[in-house]
């Protein structure tokens, strides 16, 4: 799924007249300070979303969001509470876990003249109740695992108009690469998304009216919800490395 190398990509860009710029470099998880240059803690809207995990993390708390040695680890742990709080986001499930989410400081906006390539390598848990993702709302899922050994490539044009393609994903927690190449369609309104896994094109989807819309890039480890319940009784870890975002004009 990956671009060959930075040098090869720049050579290709120069030879075709395309100008490429790195938005997020592949080493953004090398240290806390480098991480904080390119990423923010939690979701863009806060700590809660549509599952049973509440996100925790800050510059002084890396127990659930840990960037180190080139790998980002998002760590979910069960919480003990006989009367658990509920999520502040619809559908307001009970909170059973503390976990981690991050979002890129730079939003992604495809225009008629600017496209993007987004790539990374992922060790994703697939046990029942684990719901890791690599996405940007509203909504394109480059990676989404919902308690099974399958990755969901999704594009939501509306909440009721969704295109999904599922590919098999090994359950041994080995790293595999994912990539999305985004470009504007000739109508100047829709975005074409080519999805790759392990350097093989798996499907192409289209985001209706996505051109010109700034979208957040999010990596998160949500729990239960669409991934089923009950979730794991112990610690769950989602590992991500070599995430890179480039744009072309």
UniProtKB/TrEMBL annotation:
Q: Per its UniProt record, what PROSITE patterns does this chain match?
A: GH16_2
Q: InterPro entries attached here?
A: Beta-glucanase-like (IPR000757), ConA-like_dom_sf (IPR013320)
| One biological process term in Gene Ontology | carbohydrate metabolic process
What name appears for this protein in its UniProt entry?
GH16 domain-containing protein
- Provide the species name: Agaricus bisporus var. burnettii (strain JB137-S8 / ATCC MYA-4627 / FGSC 10392)
Q: Where is this region: Disordered?
A: 71-96
Residue ranges of domain GH16 in the record: 17-248
Q: Which stretch is the leader sequence?
A: 1-20
In its UniProt record, a GO molecular function of this protein is: hydrolase activity, hydrolyzing O-glycosyl compounds
Q: Which UniProt keywords apply?
A: Signal
């Amino acid at each position: 799924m990956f671009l060959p190398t930075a040098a090869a990509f720049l050579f290709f860009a120069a030879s075709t007249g395309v100008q490429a710029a790195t938005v997020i470099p592949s080493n953004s998880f090398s240290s806390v300070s480098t991480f904080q240059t390119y990423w923010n803690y939690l979701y863009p809207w806060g700590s809660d979303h549509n599952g049973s995990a509440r996100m925790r993390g800050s510059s002084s708390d890396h127990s659930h969001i840990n960037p180190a040695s080139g790998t980002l680890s998002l760590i979910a742990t069960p919480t003990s509470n006989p009367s658990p709080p509920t999520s502040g986001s619809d559908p307001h499930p009970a909170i059973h876990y503390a976990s981690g989410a991050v979002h890129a400081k730079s939003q992604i906006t495809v225009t008629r003249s600017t496209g993007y390539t987004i790539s990374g390598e992922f060790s994703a848990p697939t046990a029942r109740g684990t719901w890791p993702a690599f996405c940007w709302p509203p909504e394109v899922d480059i990676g989404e695992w919902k308690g099974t050994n399958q990755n969901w490539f999704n594009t939501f044009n509306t909440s009721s108009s969704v295109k999904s393609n599922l590919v098999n994903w090994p359950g041994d927690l080995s790293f595999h690469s994912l990539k999305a190449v985004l470009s504007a369609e000739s109508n100047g309104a829709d975005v074409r998304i080519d999805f790759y896994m392990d350097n093989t094109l798996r499907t192409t989807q289209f985001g209706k009216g996505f051109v010109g819309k700034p979208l957040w890039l999010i990596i998160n480890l949500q729990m239960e919800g669409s991934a089923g319940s009950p979730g794991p009784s112990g610690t769950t870890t989602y590992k991500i490395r070599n995430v890179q975002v480039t744009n072309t004009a």
